[in-house]
Amino acid sequence: MKRRIRMGMVGGGPGAFIGPVHRLAAEMDREIELVAGAFSSDAARSIAGGAAYGIGPDRSYPSLDAMLVAERDRADGIEMVVIATPNRHHLTAARAALEAGIAVMCDKPLTATLEEARTLEGVVARAGLPFGVTYTYAGYPLVREAKARIAAGALGTIRKLVVEYPQGWLAGEAVGKQAAWRVDPASAGIGGCIADIGVHAFHLAEFVSGLKLVKLLADLGSVVPGRALDDDCQILLRFDNGARGVLLASQISVGERNGLRLRIYGDKAGLDWRQEEPNSLWLSHADGRSELIRAGDPGLSPAALQASRTPGGHPEGYLEAFANLYRDFARLLRGEAAPLLPGLADGLRGMAFIDTAVRASRENAGWVDFTG
Amino acid sequence: MKRRIRMGMVGGGPGAFIGPVHRLAAEMDREIELVAGAFSSDAARSIAGGAAYGIGPDRSYPSLDAMLVAERDRADGIEMVVIATPNRHHLTAARAALEAGIAVMCDKPLTATLEEARTLEGVVARAGLPFGVTYTYAGYPLVREAKARIAAGALGTIRKLVVEYPQGWLAGEAVGKQAAWRVDPASAGIGGCIADIGVHAFHLAEFVSGLKLVKLLADLGSVVPGRALDDDCQILLRFDNGARGVLLASQISVGERNGLRLRIYGDKAGLDWRQEEPNSLWLSHADGRSELIRAGDPGLSPAALQASRTPGGHPEGYLEAFANLYRDFARLLRGEAAPLLPGLADGLRGMAFIDTAVRASRENAGWVDFTG
Amino acid sequence: MKRRIRMGMVGGGPGAFIGPVHRLAAEMDREIELVAGAFSSDAARSIAGGAAYGIGPDRSYPSLDAMLVAERDRADGIEMVVIATPNRHHLTAARAALEAGIAVMCDKPLTATLEEARTLEGVVARAGLPFGVTYTYAGYPLVREAKARIAAGALGTIRKLVVEYPQGWLAGEAVGKQAAWRVDPASAGIGGCIADIGVHAFHLAEFVSGLKLVKLLADLGSVVPGRALDDDCQILLRFDNGARGVLLASQISVGERNGLRLRIYGDKAGLDWRQEEPNSLWLSHADGRSELIRAGDPGLSPAALQASRTPGGHPEGYLEAFANLYRDFARLLRGEAAPLLPGLADGLRGMAFIDTAVRASRENAGWVDFTG
Amino acid sequence: MKRRIRMGMVGGGPGAFIGPVHRLAAEMDREIELVAGAFSSDAARSIAGGAAYGIGPDRSYPSLDAMLVAERDRADGIEMVVIATPNRHHLTAARAALEAGIAVMCDKPLTATLEEARTLEGVVARAGLPFGVTYTYAGYPLVREAKARIAAGALGTIRKLVVEYPQGWLAGEAVGKQAAWRVDPASAGIGGCIADIGVHAFHLAEFVSGLKLVKLLADLGSVVPGRALDDDCQILLRFDNGARGVLLASQISVGERNGLRLRIYGDKAGLDWRQEEPNSLWLSHADGRSELIRAGDPGLSPAALQASRTPGGHPEGYLEAFANLYRDFARLLRGEAAPLLPGLADGLRGMAFIDTAVRASRENAGWVDFTG
Questions:
Q1: What is the CATH number of the domain that holds C9?
Q2: Which pTM was predicted?
Q3: Model ipTM?
């Protein structure tokens, strides 16, 4: 029988969207339990935040440092933290936790800047502790199926990749806490849309295809008047095997909710997956056959079946995908392998992508090398 | 801060599909915690079952009675049970729990026979304790949205209702534990497909429409050679406002996974919802306008918004729908109202539906009154 | 080089929906040409009708008889007629044409009553001339593909068939010429919805499955207050191989346009086709594989490929399906075989279906034999 | 009553795909009739080609010049020609016809090179005759609806445009006549994929949005080994109102048939149209409402309703869209206005797009001005 791993949260206080998602995802499979948190730097708000999760005031701390100190002295103290703050706090929080010997699950993007990411790289290396990055979409069963099929050669040689991530919720003035910090360079870092969702698309493309980006040409825009950061990204791609591609990410595409979609074309077949209907994966062959693959179907790869909790026809969604990352993280903490969990290298690579694209676009640099 | 309600499970041992779903759903929102179980009548299997949930052998009991006795003596003893056994055990288990003062969440159908259901009705009445029935699909946000819109008059007078629930997984020989008990009258009761999924469709139709069935004409078949219970149901319906309808349920519809779908047509508009893509609800108006409503969208009814954990575009699914029933049940246990949670009356009505349809079909009785 | 067959039209004058469709479909493949017509029994309206088709007043006759007499004397006189009138004129028109030695393409349903249909049967037999019935949906390439696959055994033994045809356009008062005659027994005959669209669904089911209906149980309703004919049909079916089924047809299903859909389930696979997206056919196998077949794809059956004019991805629709029936009719006139063209027997069988269902429902007769 | 316009065809002989489409589209509405052709430069093949259309050997000419001479002397001679040859013959054929006083409908792209297009511009100007270009997709009813809604302000200020046109049929070696000339610079001109389908996407984007392209950045690739022309295009766009965009066109996207899709996002709403299901148009509003608009629905714009031949639910497709262009052309020939028909200016603009993109990509020129 497995003992549940005790988790503390940094951020995720009142008004947060992603904090409750982390809690739910972490606990879904009974491997992890949220027991403490530094939910806000305001003591009263942290207590209120904790209460919403069912955490008592005694373990709802006003700071990560306070949490680390207090929990260290408990027999049932936390064994990991999740960092669910705005980007600018990621490095500080991760460093503090890791240096206190606590494993870290960190929201994406890894940090606010590439420089911070490189600093964090050293911290992680020195700590030698599990470190995960919640590129959520890597947790979907059919994303893992797609990766497995490509690895097994189902597409032949990959030639073309189209990944897009349109949203519309920031098409107007940024209203509310969730919107506000994302369009503020002081909180978000150098990237707006590209750091919020473009980096998801980038990770998904490399994760599923198994390819590595080697060149890019970025066209980032700030469409909403007065916006300091990018809110619409059009990026041309070239991968290490010569494959061509394009990445589109937008937060001003009115009417779109969360339209992440990935299409990959090889010389033998093409595939298509859409996050809003995540239980369907299309595989279309050069001979004209089109297959619809549904999550939970018998005959899927072990990676996909292990990531499903229900049989085909009983739809799972975003929360279950997220929970699959936590299940992987628990494996790491138990000393097992979790090769599909995005880690520090993926986070770092994402920051390099953001940094390279923002600079290349700002300088209208045309094609630039991407060294990751 | 809410204290978690302590739950015991009856059934749901090794090999079960629905036990882990109950566990996950009950715990999703941190209001309930599975702490004990009588997972099997075989002591060793119960312990193995418990271990899979993270429950120790001390609280993995060989029988419900043993659990009730042992837990009563604990300060942290169970406050509710979920009954996740084959149908034939529902009455016995529910009675034992209720008579021990323990609230009950019961899987559907309520019991194995209508007689048992009527017996249980008395037991529940005497106990005066919360009693829920997991008609899962009543937990979907957009099902609740549909119900709210109809109640608000969006469809005008309802005239026609089509509810269908095709599956294909029992089209061949019944293989495995899940299939075996469902086709065995000794475990399942008098209904096969109708009791397993037809009753879901029936509940959904009444739940969303707000109408009550008053007549039916049933055509149930056992398509697979040698099958004792029905595996394909075609039932004509008449509702209390005169509306016409049809209910189709099938477990021999090869290629279908879990295709529950509900269409309701009024004189002003029609709606359409499909379980396999549960985050979309169609509303089409007499003037030709067709609207797509997505779960989590702003502007939905409070009932739908409260049943969503994520904003639009972040799909939720079957497990979250199921969890919404548990969230409702927790409200009951805390003394709050939970008007959308299916209860004893719904369970009883479902049994009457099964009983009436099976008998009417067997006797080729044509239209028969349905008194519920 | 083929000479075009000269066609006259009966009906289809000003305000008609189906007349222009017949013209266009007949002429699409350059095998037939509309050259004359008795477009209305009002001489001026017939001339106006003709003008809309590009037919001069000299060949726009005030009656079929006038057309038959005048055209017989022309070297370039008509060789076939299409009957596109309300149902009550079908018998009279068909008889006159056939007895004048002119082949007939007749709109569905065959006649206004079964008795008329039987009378027509004798007329056709005596005439020995080509006779077609425009069950339009039998002309779709993927309907023919479905038929071919079933004939080749792709589904195994057929067990279950669901055919539905919801529309919403008659949910309110019948407004306009098109609506008015369809709800008037004097023009339409004994059937409303069942004769207008139910018969399409019935033909499609038998056409694709290759099965023959042997029993039915009909529940027809007149939902709109004051309506004399049925506007909503729910019919249970039993086929000659024992397969079960249901046919739903409705003209009061608000929000539905022309939602004809056919699902057939065998013991090896199931298929699904929808008229509103007619270029897709789903084939789902017992082993869990789901295939999407698109019209025009290489690898389809000869029957489907011959019925497509464009390669996959260039959608064809209702008019092309209709034209395929005319192409078949031209083959008959040229002395070739056209086994897929619905003929007198299909029309007669449709009338028997309407007659049997209307009577069985009126008498609440339960299951009745269908002898065709 | 309208007299049919007499049309001659250039090209479209045995083995052609687009010739029969032109014939069918031109004749669909009875306004135009194909009566002659120079179907091939091989006399025998021209006669065979004519026979397939039902044209006699006397009017199946071995050259356009022969046709122009012979038809000029007939009382019933041709009044227009359609040019359906490979691109390299467009200029020569159009010039000959126009100089002979014959109106021209020309397949796209306008010519093989921009220089030719400019030459043709002068020819058309001097001739003063109707000249149309078959950008087919401009004929779809819902494309015209989209254009009308945008013109009426439904989207507010347009900010972003994504147009894509993936196909997979040239992913392998170019097999067959259709494929062969498209990948051969001698027949196709300087553009491969961009000239064959990219130009369609370009026209559609400007046609619907009402915007004009002012800058582009092109990334064209020849993916299939040994291919001389581009087969995959990724082009970043900037429009005259500052809107951003991207155009993707590909003929190596395995599994895609003819996936033209246009999305346009304004500050008030976004729209989405897909050629493979052309009877649906999505309009999604900033307030979260999503509407599905279907072709033929009441309430659409006059432009869309006039372009539909059937009511909603009776799908029309590619051939009807094509026929709408011919209906427009017939209006021109009758001296009426046809503002939606693409003409010389659209054709010229398309050639400038091809030329600019091919050169910019070849020179890796980054952003370049597009002067049209």
A1: 3.40.50.720
A2: 0.96
A3: 0.95
